[in-house]
Design a protein that fits this description.
By secondary structure, the chain is mainly alpha-helical. Helices cover 73% and strands 0% of the residues. The chain has three helices and no strands. Helix 1 packs parallel to helix 3 and helix 2 packs antiparallel against helix 3. The relative contact order is 0.11.
Length: 105
């Protein structure tokens, strides 16, 4: 909506916002695919009596992600925090899977 009190937005700003919206959508779909895979990992871990968390793998993934972030000119600290958030959620899912379905109240 554009009226006399609202200045028109520059075309470059609109184009960049469109790109950001596309990237955000791609991130959501990528995260969905990642969580589908980690749910399957959780089922396999539970079936084989493995713990929900694997600190050795997590440490290797942090190091790998920090290196990738550096190469991509992304703040490695941010990348590590982002991965930590995802891994925390994955472990929570794995714990839920290992504990079995919750009975309805």
């Amino acid at each position: 909506m554009n009226d006399e009190t609202t200045p028109a937005l520059p075309a470059d700003l609109l184009r960049l916002r469109g790109s950001i919206d596309n990237i955000d959508a791609a991130l959501v779909y990528l995260l969905a695919e990642r969580f589908k895979a980690t749910q399957q990992v959780g089922v396999l871990k539970a079936a084989h009596g493995l713990p929900p968390s694997d600190p050795g793998r997590e440490a290797r993934q942090v190091a790998r992600l920090r290196s990738l972030a550096h190469e991509a000119e992304l703040d490695p600290v941010f990348a590590e925090k982002f991965l930590a958030f995802i891994v925390e959620e994955v472990i929570r899912h794995h714990e839920e899977i290992a504990n079995g379905p919750v009975a309805p109240e």
